């Protein structure tokens, strides 16, 4: 959703066949002069990540205390696409996953 009243709201869902297998509610909010990404995947408790490095077209959010991921990065690619990357330590090993997104029309 477009920014309004100091927040951005978003959601995603993963579909396999006729089933929703995962979903996530997301917010980006400003609180006490800091920017937070708040993720709530598939009904779990919300996890907060604070914005660190912000550059033209990219932002990093971190929470070293979170189980996985500990870092979330968004990077704009062109005018209508972005790459989200989650990374951190999982089961004692460094892991990372990229998600590619492109703007689409909603009917």
Keywords:
about 110 residues; mainly beta; 8 strands; about 65% strand
How do the strands of the widest beta sheet line up side by side?
A: 1-2-3-4-5-6-7-8
What is the count of helical runs? 0
Average of pLDDT: 93
Please identify the structural class as seen in this structure.
mainly beta
Reading the helices and strands in chain order gives EEEEEEEE
Shape verdict: globular
Largest sheet: 8 strands, antiparallel
How far apart the termini lie comes to 15 Å
The total tally of domains equals 1
Uncertain spans: none
Strand content: over 45%
Helicity range = under 10%
Count the E strands: 8
Radius of gyration: 14 Å
Structural summary, described in words:
Helix content is 0%, strand content 67%. The protein is mostly beta strands. It has one domain. It has an 8-stranded antiparallel sheet with strand order 1-2-3-4-5-6-7-8, with no helix packed on it.
Question: Outline of this structure?
Answer:
The chain has 107 residues and is mostly beta strands.
Helices and strands in order:
Blueprint (H helix, E strand, L loop, with lengths): L6 E10 L2 E13 L2 E8 L5 E9 L2 E5 L8 E7 L3 E10 L2 E10 L5
Antiparallel strand pairs: 1-2, 2-3, 3-4, 4-5, 5-6, 6-7, 7-8
């Amino acid at each position: 959703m477009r920014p309004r009243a100091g927040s951005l709201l978003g959601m995603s869902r993963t579909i396999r066949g006729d089933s929703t297998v995962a979903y996530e509610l997301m917010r980006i909010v400003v609180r006490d002069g800091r920017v937070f990404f708040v993720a709530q995947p598939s009904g779990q408790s919300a996890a907060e990540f604070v914005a660190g490095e912000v550059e033209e077209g990219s932002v990093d959010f971190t929470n070293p205390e979170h189980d996985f991921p500990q870092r979330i990065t968004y990077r704009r690619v062109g005018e209508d696409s972005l790459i989200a990357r989650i990374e951190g330590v999982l089961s004692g090993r460094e892991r990372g996953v990229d998600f590619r997104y492109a703007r689409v029309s909603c009917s």
